[in-house]
Amino acid sequence: GLHDNIIGPLIPTLIEQTHSTLQEISSIISLKSVGILIGSIIGGIIGNYLHGHRPLILFSTLCLSGLTFLCLVYTSKMGFLIAIMLILGFLHANVVMNSHILLGSLWDKLSTTAFNFVHAGTSLGGVIATLLVRPFILLDSEAGKNVNNSTKREIGPVIDSLPPDSILTCLSLFVAFFFLPLWMYNIRNRTAAKSSENVDPRSVSATEEGTIWQQMKDFYSSTNAVKAMVTLVPITLLVICSLERIFANFIVTFFSRLELKLDDGEILLVNTIYWISFSLGRILFSLIGAFLLDDIILMFTSIISVILIFFFLLIKSKVSGIVIIGFYGCIIGGLMPSVLAKINSTLRINGALAMLIEIGNSIGVLVVINLIGFVLSKYDTICFIYVCGVLHIIIVVLSICLIYFASKIEKNPRFDDEILIAKDDDILCYHTIDSLTHETSKDSSEMN
């Protein structure tokens, strides 16, 4: 979350360092999506080839990401900045893909809880990023002569980027080291597998087989329901990521043009409330996910968010605006993790699915957001709500399709530790694999 959101407050600083314009810097920053797209493909292949070492990949990419951010402090050339954005996008894709696969493998049936809780961290990073750079705002006399006072008022204050980037680098290195014990655990499990059949089913190396192309071939040589669901994965993530980014980018402009007479501080407060409620929503659904089916959570979040988005057209006061955006942020926060959990519970997120998820994400950020941003610039800001409403309706349709096709897919046997062993008087008897080894039968012919 910090990696994604700290770039925004540093835009005025990058403009001064590179002696460029806001439009040039914005175009360069959007190239991070190109890096994500490249990282989704190349990183997916490499990560799947080294699937038993995903924690080590996460350790390496987090360390490199932190060190790359530190290079922003010394960026003075446009070409250097372009290279940094492409590298950050590439590393971002690798972190997200390998994290999703690890979560799906380790948490199994509780993946709804895991995905919501972990994605709450990304939204909290959006709140913390602004707080992290605030103490390091430079005075006009310190900021340099390249950015004049009128421009500063338009694009924001210039930041002394060395302290926040250094803090971010240290945090990245600190968090990265937590993946080393998990990597050592996987190595030990793989070593034990060579001499014993008692392999922990949560081990990544024990649950993933074949190259990424073989996985795609297996998906599309399976039933029509599997083919349809795999095809829907990047489309669904494309729409959801586009919706989240569009709302976050344009909500401040929307509130600033409402007839509520909000000052700059109150408008920024609205944005902060959105991100906080967004984070709290993901934490809330992470707890609810331990008790409710992911189907219920997915349909609840998608349908209620459709209703809430049109409540923005009814805002007549500051209080109503804050209440509506708080409820909306809380509900929409659980949308993406619920979709990921549904995909994982049905197909188990592997290298191929993780790659498709990130491809949908990157295309949504790169193409859809720029396209809709261009459309919104030509029309009244109120159409922003209608655009979000249409996207929400599409998400409801996609969610229904995901649930329908998932119901047609036979449960992934790797995902459950129970197997059907007998049928007696129309009662299905289930036994765990452990108890199966001790099970005896009066008549072995009754066993199927």
From TrEMBL:
- Answer yes or no on keyword Amino-acid biosynthesis: no
Checking InterPro entries in the record gives:
MFS (IPR011701), MFS_trans_sf (IPR036259)
Pfam families reported in the protein's UniProt record:
MFS_1 (PF07690)
Q: What does the UniProt keyword field contain?
A: Membrane, Transmembrane, Transmembrane helix
The molecule here is called Sodium-dependent glucose transporter 1
Q: Where are the transmembrane segments?
A: 28-49, 56-75, 81-103, 115-137, 166-185, 225-247, 267-285, 297-315, 321-340, 352-372, 384-405
Q: Which PANTHER family match?
A: SODIUM-DEPENDENT GLUCOSE TRANSPORTER 1
Please report the organism this UniProt entry assigns to the protein: Cichlidogyrus casuarinus
**Gene3D superfamilies, from UniProt?**
MFS general substrate transporter like domains (1.20.1250.20)
Taxonomic lineage is: Eukaryota, Metazoa, Spiralia, Lophotrochozoa, Platyhelminthes
